[in-house]
Amino acid sequence: MRLKVSFDWVSLHFRTTDVDNVVRHILKLKLSEFSLEDYARYQYSQLYRYGAINLYVDSKDETHGVLIECSGTACRELETILEAQERDWYDLFNDCLVYEKDLRLRSVTPLIEGEEATDSLSYFNVTRLDLALDEFYSEKGNYKLLNLFEHFHDGLVGTTKRRYSSQMGGQYTSEGLINDGLTLYLGSPQSSPFFRFYEKDAERAKALSLSLDSVHDLYGYKNRYEIVLRGDKAHKFIQGYVSEYFDVAKRAVDIINANLVVFSDFHGHLDEEWYDLMNSKEAYRFETNPKEVDVNRTWVWAEKNVLPTMAFLKKDDPEKFQELLEHSKIPKRYQHYLERKQTHEKQNP
């Protein structure tokens, strides 16, 4: 296998103010398991969080409704939740479409505007969907993104996109020049699909202050090819996935191949190295990679936002502080984490 394909960003919008119902039907969780933040974005009035999963709520405006937003980290955490529930991505998206029908039936709009007006409304939308195609390091060799960059520069790439750009940089350190890696962008960030291809091993090496060899050994990363779908194209992808149950990996590769053709010369010969990566059915597959809630993120957040306040409260009224601490309930998502941690420690003393 040359490529592993996964969902790397999922945004789900529901035309309803009933956030409790959305959480129960779609995520199969309870809103009480989420933490309410003291800020929000996208003009929403409230933001709830479960690990890295963001839940934006507008309790007054049905059109603004409820937005479930999952970044790459959140997608991995959601896969853990789905796995525990004996569900998968297909089940989740199917539940979204079923729930949309329920919202439509329960809407009061037909009583006011008539049936025809209701049919034109959308009660569920996939507003963004990112597909990540990860190429892992191989001692036999990997595709060189610099070759694709040079093909673009030489006019050897046929594409449906009018715009492409690139970014490459580095920095001098005490250990010498560190390469940030090459990133290629195809299309504008607002277009759909938008493509971002980059050297993930160099990106991770910079972020983690590791050598490329260490990244290869520890994580196996080499290149990543990302597809960003927005609006109607994101929604139709999921509708098709539920109705046809197609191979997500194959469809992702098809999207890339439909939007760019890479030639090796001006005589119409295709670039064999590129299509060895993108055209073999044995070269790719769709996978999930469930991961636990990132407790380290919680520690960092607590250190910056919670612990200073706790230190003050403890000095202000030690008895009351201790009483509140003893009666505080651990959120269920962390209870599950602690239970699994204790089980692991018993099995691996």
Explain the overall architecture.
With 349 residues, this protein is α+β, with helices and mostly antiparallel strands. It is built from 15 helices and 13 strands. α1 runs antiparallel to α3 (89-106), α7 (200-208) packs across α8 and α13 crosses α14 (318-327). The radius of gyration is 24 Å and the shape is globular. The model has no long low-confidence stretch (mean pLDDT 85).
Relevant terms:
two-stranded antiparallel ribbon, single chain, eleven-stranded mixed β-sheet, alpha+beta, 15 helices, globular, 349 residues
Sequence-ordered SSE layout with sheet pairings:
Layout: E1 3-14, H1 19-27, E2 35-36, E3 46-50, E4 53-57, E5 66-70, H2 72-84, H3 89-106, H4 109-113, H5 115-119, E6 124-136, H6 145-154, E7 157-159, E8 164-173, E9 176-186, E10 194-199, H7 200-208, H8 212-218, E11 221-230, H9 231-244, H10 248-259, E12 260-262, H11 272-278, E13 284-286, H12 295-305, H13 307-316, H14 318-327, H15 332-347
Parallel strand pairs: 1-13
Antiparallel strand pairs: 1-5, 1-6, 2-3, 3-4, 4-5, 6-11, 7-12, 8-9, 9-10, 10-11
Helix pairs in contact: 1-3, 3-9, 7-8, 13-14
Total of DSSP H or I helical runs spanning 4+ residues: 15
Oligomeric form: single chain
Gross morphology is: globular
> What is the strand tally?
13
Helix content: 40-55%
Largest sheet: 11 strands, mixed
Structural class label: alpha+beta
Provide the succession of SSEs: EHEEEEHHHHEHEEEEHHEHHEHEHHHH
**Low-confidence runs:** none
Computed CA radius of gyration, to the nearest angstrom: 24 Å
Average pLDDT over all residues: 85
> Which percent band covers the strand fraction?
25-35%
- Distance from N terminus to C terminus (CA atoms, Å) equals 36 Å
